[in-house]
Structures are given as structure tokens and as C-alpha cells.
Amino acid sequence: MRAYLDLMRIPGARSLLIASTFPRLAYAMVSLAIFFLVQEASGSVAVAGLAVGVSSGIGAITAGPRGHLVDRLGQTIPIAVLVPAYALATVALAVFAHSPVTAVVLSGVVGLCAPPINLSIRPLWQVLAGPERVRTAYSVDAAYTNLLQLLGPVIATFVALHVSPTAAILLVGFCMLVGGLLLAGHPHSRRWVPEPRQPGEVRLWRSPAMRLMALEGLAMGLAVGLITIALPSLAVTTGHESMTGWLMAGMGVGAIAGSAWAGARAHGIAPVRGLRTSVLLFAVFCIPIAVLPIGPWMIAAIVVAWTFFGPAQVFYLETIDIVRPSGTAVAALGSLWMIEGAAAAAGNALGGVIAQGPGARWALVIASVIVFASPAIFTVGIRTVLAPAARLTTRSAETQPAAA
Questions:
Q1: Three-state DSSP string of 10-25
Q2: Handedness of CA 152, 299, 222, 272 (dihedral sign)
Q3: 372, 290 in Cβ contact below 8 A?
Q4: 331-356 and 117-162 are packed helices; what angle lies between their axes, rounded to 10 degrees?
């Protein structure tokens, strides 16, 4: 606890968390807001899953270019342009989604305009906390993000079912507009200087370590994409719509506990070794989710599984920091999220099709098998290209971006 209190005393730390609140809440709500809006407009779970997949997929495949843009221009311009565009796109979706085609197309526009919120926040923690406290900072950031991801599905479900799906998607746009502009005006964000590239450093995708991380992202993204659309689909098709938010919120409860543990208790664990163990345990505890009935036991299984997913988020960021090429502080994570997010979008779309056909249970079963590829890939990486992250080392402070 002392480590967290000391971190929050650093100038700019608390205001950074506050500035990140509304845009992250928007991202936590958007998938279910789109799902309920399109399901109402089309009358089809499959079309709703496709719309969510298209939105998240386009957002994912453009994450890499947005990361490169931030590494070139800084944070202020990309955020200041994309935040209002995203808000306008949600308004267009709310007003004009009268048919399956327009709903899916406009959902894609929402994904296209997604601002680089998380991509911009992560390097700011490197500046504020320094190498010695970066795991604690990532833990705080991950726990807070997961708290918002816990609240987002509950809020989106409540507004969609008790007010209207249109109101839910408009709330997403409002949150992004308010919070995104707060982040764009944050002093540390405005002063952030991109990390310099070291002479002779390989390009991003010529790095064997980054290619291996991308392969793992394909597997994990596909599995999580299947799960995140299979759960609401299962709730809708079995007449338990009101449970949707609680099923999704269980992920946040577990991830908060796990990421908080990683920052407070995970001292002495090398990043990629902690990452492998976390995703292995996550895979093991995904199995019960596929077979348990909707209710308290399924929610409990989700909480336990995501308790191991939380530390993985923290160790993942540290591993990337160590193995990525210099000069790619934002682009490296953005490019990996591009791969993982595209796979998750494919999982969303596939999950909707499976739910409409064989049933949502089959999507959960398939996901519980695919997810085991992740710890297998990290096992290979520890022995080869990820070996630097298997030691208790961090990227030198001299290579971190600085505020000027």
C-alpha cells in the first residue's frame, strides 16, 4: 500500500488518472452499447456481433498507425483531432442505424475514429514513475482501467435496457469527448517528447521478439474476442439479458484484484516469467466458464480467471518495454494491440455466428482451447528471443521518453 501512496504523491499522477477516467469508461461501454443498439435495429444477435467485431476490428487495425503518429507528432494533435471525431461518429450511429447495413458501417466508423487514449497514457507513467516504480505504476493504471471496465458494462447494460440503446451509445460519445479533451490538455501529455531511436536499431517488425509477441496476440485476441461476445450472446439467447453486465463486470473484479497484487506483491518476478504463469493459470480457469450455467457460479469462475489475467496485463507491458526496439514507445504497443485487437474482432464476429448457429456454449468451448496457445508461445520465447525479459531488468532510464 505504501508503494501506491508514494506513487500518487508524484506531481501529475492523480490528475493523469482523473483525465483518463471518462475516455476509458467510454471504451468500457462501447462494445455492449453497439451490441444492444444493433441487436435492436436488426433483430439479430449475429449482426450485432458482426457490428461489434467490425468496430473493434477497424479500431485495432488502425492502432499501429495511430501509435506511429503519436511517436512522430506527440500526443496533443492526434487526441485533439480524433476525440471530437469519435463523439460525432457515435451520434451518427445513434441517429442513422436503421438497418443492418448502416448499423454495421457506422459501427466501423466509430472504430476508425478511436483516439489513442491508452497508447498515450502508458508512456506518461514511464516519465512520472521512472524505471524503479514502473511496475507499480502499470499496476495502478491496469487496476484503475479494470475498475472502469467493471463499471462500463453495467452502466451500458442498465442504460440500454432501462432507457434505450440509443442513449447508451450517446453516453459513450459524451464520455469520450469530455475525458479526451481533458487528457489532451494535461500538462504531461502536452510536454511529452517521443523516445529517440538508437543508431542501428532494427525496425519494429524486423524484431524477432515483436513477431513472437504478435503471434501470441493472435491467439489471445481470438480467444478473448470469442468469450466477450459469447457471454452476452448466451445471456440474450437464454433469456438472461439482465445478467449480461454482471457477467462482463466479473472480468473487471478479477482483473482489479490481480493487477493490484502484481504491483504490491510481485517483487522478484521477471516480467516474461510472470506473464507466462499468469496466462497459463488464466487458460486453466477459462475451462469452467464454458460449462457452468449462467448465474453466481459462472460469475465466480469469470472472477477467478480474470484474477490471473490482471497480473498478465502488468507483466505484458514490462515485457514489451524490454524487448521492443528503441524509438517505438507508443508504436510497439499500438502495433501489438493492432494484431491482438484484429484477432479479437474476428473472435467477436465468429462468436456471433456460432451463437446464432450451434450456440454460444460452443464459442466458449473453442475459446477455452485456443487460449492455451499463449503460455506455450511464451515458453518458447523465454528460451529464445524473449530471454532479456526473463531477467529482472528494465529498459534503461536514459532510453525513456522525457517531459520537457
A1: CCCHHHHHHHHHHHHH
A2: positive
A3: no
A4: 30
Q: Is 192 helix (H, G, I), strand (E, B) or coil?
A: strand
CA torsion through residues 66, 67, 73, 79, sign: positive
Q: At what angle do helices 208-237 and 244-265 cross, to 10 degrees?
A: 150
- Whether the CB-CB separation of 14 and 187 falls below 8 Å is answered with no
Determine the angle formed by the axes of helices 331-356 and 360-370, rounding to 10 degrees: 140
Distance CA(291)–CA(346), nearest Å, equals: 23
pLDDT tens track for 50-109: 898 889 878 888 888 888 888 888 888 899 999 999 999 999 999 998 888 999 999 999
CB 289 within 8 A of CB 305: yes
The answer for residues whose C-beta is within 8 angstroms of residue 80's C-beta and 6 or more apart is 181, 184
Q: What tens digit of pLDDT does each residue of 230-282 get?
A: 998 888 888 887 787 788 778 888 988 888 887 666 667 888 999 999 999 99
Provide the b/e sequence for 206-232 (b: ≥16 CB within 10 Å): ebebbebbbbbbbbbbbbbbbbbbbbb
Cell of 234: 448466451
Please list the residues that pair with 403 across neighbouring strands.
192
Under 8 Å between Cβ of 29 and 155 = yes
CA atoms within 13 A on the CB side of 384: 14
344, 80 Cβ separation under 8 angstroms: no
- Can you give the pTM of this predicted structure? 0.78
- What the block records as the C-alpha cell of 267 is 517483487
pLDDT tens digits, one per residue of 13-40 = 888 888 899 999 999 999 889 999 998 8
Q: How far apart are CA 256 and CA 218, in angstroms?
A: 24
Distances (CA, A) of 332 to 74, 122, 195: 15, 12, 12
- Of 347, 360, 53, 354, nearest to 237 (Cα)? 360
